[in-house]
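Title: Prediction job returns without error message
Component: structure pipeline
Severity: low
Priority: P3
Assignee: unassigned

Description:
Job completed but the reporter wants confirmation the result is attached to the right record. Sequence as submitted:
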Amino acid sequence: MFSRRVSKFLINVNRYLHTSKNCKKEFEHPLLRTLRILKEDFYRIEGASKNEREKQRALMGLFPRHADVLIIGGGAIGSSIAYWLKEKTSREGIRVVVIEKDMTYSKCTTVLSPGALHQQFSLPENIQMSLFGADFLRTIKKRFGKGAHVQFHPQGHLVLADEVGAQQLVDNSLIEREFGVINELLSKEQLKNKFPWMNVEDVELGCLGLEKQGWFDPWALLSVMRYGATDLGTQYIEGEVVDFLFKDKQEYIGEGMEDTSYEAVREAVIKLPDGQHKTIEFAYCIIAAGTETLELSQLAKIGKGPGMLSIPLPIEKRKRYVYKFDCPESPPGINTPMTVDPSGLYFRRQGLGGSFLCGLSLPEKCEESPQNFFDHQILPVLQNRVHKFCDIKLTNSWCGNYENNYFDDSGIIGPHPYYHNLYIATGFSAYGIQQAPAIGRAVAELIIDGDFKTIDLTRFGFDRFIVDKPMYEYRQIQ
């Protein structure tokens, strides 16, 4: 009925303007042109499928009043969640809206990552997620088309251990092999024979990932995931969540509520780039905003309220410097894997010439400048491990923050125990980019299916902070 009334109105206005004496035949009246475009948009949206209507609304920039699932954070993890939600519901099942603070992603952790791909972990969950990430990259063109490129370099991933860390490397290798990871333990002599450019005097053992390991372009993966989400009808909105609105639910009674009424989180307040504030109601909300997740959780009273809400989300910003340098004379060859030193420092090739990337997580509360940190912490380790790096030239550097889970340094995924409709996906820090496809699929399973269906990530839930059961990842990788 509504569509017929709008259609009739447009036809009548169109007829009036065409017969008006003020409308010259050689020119299109400005109001007529506006209504013509409006009519075309209206008919296009009205006649399209639900998925196409969502895409049209997104293109037209219409701010939605309601979302079935609101995702805060449009980086790799947020975009992956959006993609899998739409993919699992046959494109048209639910309305998904993503709020992203910075559409340029200039400070996004995703694009500052070195793009490592490996399965060298001690926790089975991390191994399984990274294996799925590798398979996802391998078949990405089948899923998104021939134009989907992530520039994967399958040169392997080499983790070095000194005498103290050697046994842990052996233990991790055995766990990895149980899940089908192809790796090779190398003694000091084997390392020297395989990589003659490497100094192994202080190295006891190495573990080389032989398949599905190397590095890729994080920006390319983010672009592909976002394209996949929008193509299925996800709407992206540039804005910042500045508050949540709540609604009393007297009928809810549960543990940890201390005889108070239950407040359900129902709406988010969005600050748009022009300063306007708008609200959007949601059935489910997922916070996947990286380093901003702590502040957003506090807006939802997590860590600020009574009972279960008194336990904060253990997330902090941790600085990470990344450096690019050139090795002009006889650099390590094309078969050089991404190498992780016992100190935690990593380096890998950048292109086919003599350029390399390297980095190291900064110690907590370290305020050294990028140049000083490189000179005092990075350069001595590089020169010790590869003597050809004694004459390198630093060509670029950048600093980024990643979300560090200071409770146990592992990811956090799943619903908050107090709010039945508020989910969290954060704390994956340095390896979140390679696990983003698996994280997105897991969150989609929780919402659509009600439980994890492929990889059981229950142990990564918020509940472990309440019962004090940390999930430590024992590894050399920083």
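Comment from assignee: result matches the submitted record. DSSP finds 14 helices and 18 strands in the chain.
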